[in-house]
């Protein structure tokens, strides 16, 4: 009988292996790892079968205490298995070829020599001054927005004084604004009207209710001119406070003191299905109204309470109130949605007892915090099970509320069905709200007076924000004058992160409403987002409550497409000693602290692999008059830095900016689909290059702006005004420009066959300068420093870094990237991996090129049973035979394609390690692999391992990748790696075994809502780095380039072999017939537009397969037979007859529905807005212009940025809800009175059509909707083609009645025309 091995042995083994792998020191280790030999060079050697250890050879044969043989020896590498080749030799040859490509084709040695020859000057590094500058810019930005807010507030308060004497109540509904008023605006990401505003109001609004909208429009327009960063401006009155989108902002403004609320929802057998539906809508409306300042608890009630989490798993939720963060509200809403009716009577007394106990527990835990009042929101039909139950309920309330000195207010909500008698039910709920103890002969248990609540009767979910949105009124608290700042949230209008600032408006002491402004988060945090981290430091922004607003672990706000879960900074700076520093940050206005950090406890944001320990310094400063704190973290002490001296650019007379569509060169050509030039490189300046990145992103680039950029960059006299660029940009442009000659020489070297496979060459600097050849247009929002190829090169300085294949957004199909770092210049070029990186160079190659390279270096790779592959240090395949099969997915892991090998190599713990990190923004635990690039020798099958697949793997020297060769000898696989076919969810999230094979996946990350800590201590992992930004597709309205030549003339038809074909730019090897079902009898090479992915007439992701079909040879006309005229005559007669029948039936149909003509004609039809799903687009295929973009467009919305009583709801969770359902109810609720707003709250992420829209003059085809929510922890990955878009010239909007009064309005309309 086997027994368990003592845990100490396993722990010791893990610790020793861990120390060995990560420190690479020469040290004595335990017997369990003696087969790992250490060299002073730090390379790891493998212990093969047959090798002897003179001292402890018996270690590998001795059985462990449990009888299990721990023999982890591998087979001796046998060249005969692979035709006599030695994989180490082949890896060195492959390394030499890759190094040659890097040095010669990219120009690494040339560029490094250029930087070594440049003049440098030393400057003092002053981090305190850097922090002060950023804090000053943030202070100024917030001061401007608060000034706008106060101006709007003063205007409204003045208007109210006139309203008292002469009512101001005219309004214009948002749904009545003509569609022609709205114009696409790049800053908003949707169609807006900047000429007017509009009103949203409930049906039952009072006739003379205050509405200052008409008078605010001009004020708002002036504000927008002064401060272009403003997003939305709005006023919400007390009487019209039904704005669902800003319901939490409204409550936080009028009741800024924290609310303490327990929501009790009855789901017993007394409720009908309609009443249960209404009760759920009411509960979720309450949750939508709360903010992170408030505390809330939710439970269901039937015969006993039902809690969101089982008390055995979480002691917090069943016993206390938690902060009403977005995550908590989302979680509670999901719980409410999933409540089912129970076949049991409701125990009302137990429900109130449970609610009071939660409040009592919260008060006990809130030491030092005074809680004035709490509230119980009781949602029920009010049906009692007996006549005496009423007294029992009142007795329970009296006892518990008496203990709390009657600080608890009870609001009751009676859910009823129309037409049913509910007199008694309403009576008991009214008594409960008033706490009418005398009526039931119940004694008061406290001398303090009772604060009466209110009872509201509700029979539907329509206008819930009006009927139950004022639940806070019994609290009777005053609103302060100071501005209220919200946490970032996802704005449904343009799917970008937004922040709100609001203030209450008063008439004397009477609250009349709130004034608010919404801000682009991209604007608010731009100084933090685009801070240059090359000096081993970074910046983050937090609130005075500790919530993280911006951090290097976050994506840029403009690239964020999910609602981030608000997380405490502790989780991102999870180090020993940070708790004390955090406390000082939140309590002191400014300061600095030093923290000693040991190696092995570093954050994923940091890179200090060269040191055993280091000191991290935190410096912070609070932004005046706000709730924000900016923090600068130094990872190393740097006293001086080197910067380039002023470089002359006179030797670069042909400096060309990338906007070739604005300033067209004489030699312009088309590089695939984009305008380009092959006579010089072009320069792209990312947002990071500008002093005000948001201003650059908001403004459309014009020809004059481009000319100003070029003039400044070429100016050696320093007399031309800086157009808003950072100081280092000019030198970076001049330095990178010196590689231009080398690139031109390589490109025009006709004997170089590599050029057929090289898509482009480029270089990027940390300042955001990007130079590419052939020069082409780059998407304005792109940031090369956030790309995979740039960051992977920084991870492996001095190495040739390979990036797995991905789809090129500029039309070249699937490509792979080789990149390499450039170091800061040094005398005699004496560089080390620890030198500062000043640039990264790269080259895009066709995906097939690396397969062809493998076959040239290792001819046996072409054998039928032999598979050669290249994988990177994370296990993703860079080259593999299955990647070039028809319709194959390109992004593949070794666990997807080589499952037998993956199962075996997991037993080599020195080679591969499963790793975990916490992604706090979407609350997932990411599982991935790290492969040891310090491997020396050959990895082969274990002696007792898998033998169906004989494999050898070795590191490719000088790279981040590995070479593998597999000889598959079995017909069936004997092992597999489980992978989810639906999403990335791990199949077993309860445990993770190092030797169990599974694909890279993710698991939910559960949080303790009471403390903000992790629910499971075992989930404490490092924070994940931010997601790598995918290349952004170009979205510019290019004119047609039909008469422009191609920069590269493809010769696909002349290529006879598959490898030659797929390695050439723009070529595809046609192997499958249409739809990919049957094989082509004689495979051939063709333009990828005709045969994308190896399938004839396959839909191209660029939408350009249309051209391929249009260019096909027309069929030869056939000579008609005499039967033709006869058949034609018969068909003509038939058509005439059919037309007559149709006209007759149509006439009869119109007569029977004549009443429709009595309605006034509305040219701006809104009926299609009711559709839950958009109509299916046409499958017709037609040609279009040359505006090629990836089909990821979202439904453009028509919106006015000047708004009153805005009324579409904030999204319930962005792209991911972790399995929870949406918070916003879609019943016959809020939007029944505002049907034109409904499309903006549809679910997102609906896959778009794969077809190409028809080029119909005068009508814009409906874009695909992307409002479908994902129920998986992360947004679903789906593949879509690139439709060819018809370019519609902008039209000038003309108002028919220019003298009419335009009211201040806000519009949310979806453009589906």
UniProtKB/TrEMBL annotation:
Q: Which is one GO molecular function term here?
A: voltage-gated calcium channel activity
Assigned GO CC terms: voltage-gated calcium channel complex
Q: Where are the transmembrane segments?
A: 1123-1144
Keyword annotations: Membrane, Signal, Transmembrane, Transmembrane helix
Q: Where is the composition biased (Basic and acidic residues)?
A: 55-65
Extract the Gene3D superfamilies matched here: PAS domain (3.30.450.20), von Willebrand factor, type A domain (3.40.50.410)
**Protein name, entry field:** VWFA and cache domain-containing protein 1
Biological source species: Magallana gigas (Pacific oyster)
């Amino acid at each position: 009988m086997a027994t368990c091995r003592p845990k100490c042995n396993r722990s010791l083994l893990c610790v020793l292996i861990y120390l060995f792998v990560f420190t690479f020191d020469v040290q004595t280790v335990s017997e369990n790892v003696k087969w790992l030999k250490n060299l002073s060079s730090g390379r790891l050697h493998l212990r093969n079968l047959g090798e002897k250890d003179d001292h402890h050879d018996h270690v590998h044969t001795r059985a462990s205490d449990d009888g299990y043989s721990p023999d982890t020896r591998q087979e001796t590498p046998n060249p005969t298995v692979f035709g006599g080749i030695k994989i180490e030799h082949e890896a060195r040859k492959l390394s030499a070829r890759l190094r040659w490509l890097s040095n010669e084709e990219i120009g690494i040695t040339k560029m490094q020599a250029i930087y070594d020859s440049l003049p440098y000057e030393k400057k003092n590094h002053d981090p305190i001054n850097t922090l002060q500058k950023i804090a000053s810019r943030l202070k100024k930005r917030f001061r401007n927005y608060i000034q706008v807010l106060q101006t709007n507030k003063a205007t409204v308060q003045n208007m109210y004084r006139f309203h008292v004497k002469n009512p101001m109540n005219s309004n214009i509904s948002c749904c009545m604004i003509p569609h022609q008023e709205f114009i696409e605006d790049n800053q908003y990401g949707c169609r807006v009207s900047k000429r007017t505003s509009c009103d949203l109001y409930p049906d039952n609004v009072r006739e003379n209710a205050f509405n200052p909208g008409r008078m605010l429009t001009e004020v708002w327009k002036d504000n927008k001119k002064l401060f272009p960063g403003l997003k939305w401006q709005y006023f919400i009155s007390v009487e019209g406070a039904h704005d669902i989108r800003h319901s939490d902002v409204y409550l936080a403004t009028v009741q800024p003191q924290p609310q303490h609320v327990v929501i009790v929802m009855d789901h017993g057998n007394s409720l009908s299905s309609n009443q249960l539906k209404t009760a759920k809508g009411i509960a979720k409306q309450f949750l939508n109204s709360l903010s992170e300042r408030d505390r809330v608890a939710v439970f269901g009630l039937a015969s006993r309470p039902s809690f969101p989490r089982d008390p055995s798993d979480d002691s917090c939720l069943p016993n206390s109130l938690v902060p009403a963060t977005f995550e908590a509200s989302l979680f509670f809403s999901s719980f409410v949605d999933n409540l089912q009716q129970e076949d049991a009577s409701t125990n009302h007394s137990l429900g109130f007892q449970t609610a009071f106990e939660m409040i009592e527990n919260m008060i006990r835990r809130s030491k030092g915090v005074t809680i004035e009042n709490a509230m119980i929101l009781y949602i029920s039909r009010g049906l009692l099970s007996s006549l005496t139950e009423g007294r029992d309920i009142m007795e329970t309330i009296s006892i518990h509320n008496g203990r709390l000195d009657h600080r608890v207010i009870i609001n009751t909500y009676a859910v009823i069905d129309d037409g049913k008698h509910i007199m008694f039910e309403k009576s008991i709920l009214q008594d409960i709200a008033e706490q009418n103890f005398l009526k039931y002969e119940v004694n008061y248990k406290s001398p303090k007076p009772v604060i009466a609540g209110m009872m509201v009767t509700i029979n539907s979910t329509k206008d819930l924000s009006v009927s139950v949105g004022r639940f806070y009124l019994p609290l009777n608290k005053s609103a302060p004058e100071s501005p209220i700042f919200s946490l970032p949230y996802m704005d449904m209008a343009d799917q970008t992160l937004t922040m709100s600032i609001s203030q209450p408006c008063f008439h004397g002491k009477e609250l009349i409403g709130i004034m608010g402004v919404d801000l682009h988060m991209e604007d608010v945090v731009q100084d933090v987002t685009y801070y240059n981290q090359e000096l081993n430091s970074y910046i983050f922004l937090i609130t005075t409550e500790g919530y993280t607003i911006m951090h290097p672990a976050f994506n840029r706000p403009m690239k964020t497409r999910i609602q981030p879960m608000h997380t405490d900074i502790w989780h991102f700076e999870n180090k020993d000693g940070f708790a004390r520093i955090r406390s000082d940050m939140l309590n002191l206005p400014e300061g600095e602290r030093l923290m000693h950090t040991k190696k092995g406890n570093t954050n994923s944001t940091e890179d200090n692999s060269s040191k055993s320990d280091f000191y991290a310094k935190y410096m912070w400063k609070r932004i005046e008059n706000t709730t924000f704190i900016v923090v600068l973290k130094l990872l190393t002490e740097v006293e001086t830095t080197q910067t380039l001296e002023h470089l002359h650019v006179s030797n670069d007379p042909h400096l060309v900016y990338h906007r070739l569509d604005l300033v067209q060169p004489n030699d312009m050509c088309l590089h695939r689909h984009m305008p380009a030039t092959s006579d010089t490189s072009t320069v792209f300046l990312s947002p990071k290059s500008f002093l005000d990145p948001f201003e650059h992103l908001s403004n459309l680039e014009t020809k004059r702006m481009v000319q100003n950029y070029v003039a400044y960059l070429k100016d050696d006299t320093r007399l031309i005004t800086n157009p808003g660029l950072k100081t280092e940009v000019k030198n970076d442009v001049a330095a990178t420009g010196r590689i231009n000659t080398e690139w031109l020489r390589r490109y025009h070297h006709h004997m170089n066959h590599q050029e057929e496979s090289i898509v482009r060459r480029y270089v990027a600097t940390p300042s955001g300068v990007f130079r590419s050849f052939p020069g082409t247009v780059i998407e304005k929002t792109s940031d090369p420093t956030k790309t995979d190829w740039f960051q992977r090169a920084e991870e492996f300085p001095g190495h040739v870094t390979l990036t797995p294949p991905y789809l090129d957004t500029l039309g070249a199909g699937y490509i792979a990237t080789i990149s390499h770092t450039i170091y800061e210049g040094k005398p005699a070029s004496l560089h080390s991996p620890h030198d500062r990186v000043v640039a990264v160079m790269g080259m895009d190659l066709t995906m097939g090129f690396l397969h062809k390279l493998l076959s040239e270096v290792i001819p046996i790779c072409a054998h039928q049973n032999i598979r050669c592959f290249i994988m990177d240090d994370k296990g993703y395949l860079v080259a593999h035979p299955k990647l070039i099969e028809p319709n194959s997915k390109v992004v593949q892991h070794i666990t997807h394609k080589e499952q037998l090998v993956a199962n075996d190599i997991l037993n080599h713990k020195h080679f591969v390690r499963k790793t975990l990190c916490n992604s706090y923004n979407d609350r997932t635990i990411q599982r991935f692999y790290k492969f040891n690039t310090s491997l020396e020798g050959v990895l082969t099958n274990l002696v007792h391992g898998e033998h169906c697949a004989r494999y050898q793997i070795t590191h490719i020297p000088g790279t981040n990748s590995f070479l593998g060769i597999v000889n598959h000898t079995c017909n069936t696989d004997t092992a597999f790696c489980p992978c989810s076919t639906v999403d990335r969810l791990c199949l077993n999230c309860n445990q993770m075994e190092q030797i169990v094979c599974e694909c890279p996946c993710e698991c939910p990350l559960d949080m303790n809502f009471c403390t903000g800590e992790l629910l499971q201590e075992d989930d404490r992992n490092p924070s994940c780095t931010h997601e790598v930004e995918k290349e952004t597709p170009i979205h510019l309205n290019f004119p047609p380039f039909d008469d422009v030549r191609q920069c590269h003339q493809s010769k696909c038809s002349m290529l006879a072999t598959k490898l030659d074909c797929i390695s050439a730019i723009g070529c595809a090897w046609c192997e499958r017939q249409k739809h990919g079902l049957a094989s082509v009898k004689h495979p051939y090479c063709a333009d990828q537009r005709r045969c994308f992915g190896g399938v004839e007439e396959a839909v191209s992701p660029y939408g350009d397969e249309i051209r391929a079909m249009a260019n096909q040879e027309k069929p030869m006309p056939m000579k008609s037979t005499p039967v033709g005229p006869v058949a034609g005559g018969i068909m003509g007669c038939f058509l005439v007859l059919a037309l007559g029948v149709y006209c007759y039936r149509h006439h009869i149909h119109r007569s029977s529905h004549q009443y429709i003509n009595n309605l006034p004609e509305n040219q701006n039809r809104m009926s299609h807005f009711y559709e839950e799903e958009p109509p299916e687009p046409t499958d017709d295929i037609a040609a279009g212009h040359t505006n090629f973009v990836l089909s990821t467009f979202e439904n453009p919305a028509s919106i006015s940025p000047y708004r009153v009583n805005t009324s579409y709801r904030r999204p319930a969770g962005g792209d991911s809800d972790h399995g929870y359902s949406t918070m916003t109810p879609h019943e016959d609720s809020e939007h029944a009175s505002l049907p034109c707003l409904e499309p903006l709250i549809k679910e997102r992420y609906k896959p778009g059509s794969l077809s190409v829209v028809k080029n119909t003059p005068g009508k814009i085809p409906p874009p695909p909707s992307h409002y479908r929510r994902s129920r998986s922890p992360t947004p679903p990955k789906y593949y879509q083609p690139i439709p060819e878009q018809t370019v519609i010239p902008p039209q000038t909007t003309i108002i028919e009645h220019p003298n009419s009064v335009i009211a201040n309005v806000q519009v949310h309309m979806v453009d589906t025309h």
